[in-house]
Write a structure and sequence with these properties.
This protein is of the alpha/beta class and 224 residues long. Helices cover 51% and strands 9% of the residues. It contains 11 helices and 6 strands. The model has no long low-confidence stretch (mean pLDDT 94).
Length: 224
């Protein structure tokens, strides 16, 4: 294929591009302290962002990976904070085990209640999800208020997430909300998060998709 430029791509085969990318990530990341089950999450997040600083900043609760795999295999729902997160998740792998991806941010009742209370739709959507989806995987890449509300509900015993993937991006309350998640002193609430302002839809989507690939491998007997 002639691209009409002096530079020629190493390959145009999709699987080869991904494989080469992962090799480059492993070589450039170098030594790290992530476990063999955590590293695929780190690798896909770096692949999605080309950001090694972000990858190194990831923090895993000791039970996070097992909790995520189990929730997917048990058909627990995945609750996304925004439509962009929902759109990026590989739903076929979630649906294979009876799960689904839910997002309530644009539900009419959520918008109506948020307007009436003068608060964010993310907060009201989180309350709705927690009432309907105990044991679900909560995936927050954009709304720090959603993460802070989820933490509040957990502390009050009104939410029992199976896993929290909390990596909202931004300047207002983003880093602080993740710090509060890391400080959550409730051992049975596992989480995946990071330190600092970085995050976003593509980042949490990468984490969910990496988890679902691990779940498929577990179901196939490839992971102990």
């Amino acid at each position: 294929m002639d691209f009409g430029t002096d530079f020629k791509p190493v390959t145009v085969q999709p699987q080869e591009i991904e494989g080469l990318s992962f090799q480059m990530i492993t070589a450039e990341l170098g030594e790290h302290s992530f476990s063999s089950l955590e590293y695929p999450i780190v690798q896909r997040i770096i692949h999605a962002s080309a950001d090694f600083e972000l990858g190194r900043s990831l923090v895993f609760h000791p039970r996070a990976i097992e909790a995520g795999i189990n929730a997917i295999l048990q058909g627990k729902p995945i609750i996304a904070d925004v439509r962009m997160v929902e759109a990026g998740i590989a739903k076929e792998r979630i649906q294979r085990y009876g799960g689904e991806v839910r997002v309530h941010i644009s539900d009419p009742d959520v918008m109506e209640e948020a307007n009436a209370l003068g608060t964010t739709r993310a907060i009201i959507a989180t309350r709705k999800a927690c009432a309907q989806a105990p044991g679900g995987i909560y995936v927050i890449g954009n709304a720090p208020t959603a993460l802070l509300e989820l933490i509040r509900l957990v502390k009050e015993g009104k939410a029992q997430p199976g896993l929290v993937i909390g990596m909202p991006v931004g300047f207002v309350s983003a880093a602080e909300s993740k710090e509060e998640l890391r400080k959550l002193d409730i051992p049975y609430i596992p989480y995946i998060t990071n330190i600092g302002r970085k995050g976003g839809s593509t980042i949490v989507v990468a984490a969910v998709n990496a988890l679902s690939l691990l779940a498929v491998r577990r179901a196939a007997g490839e992971l102990v």
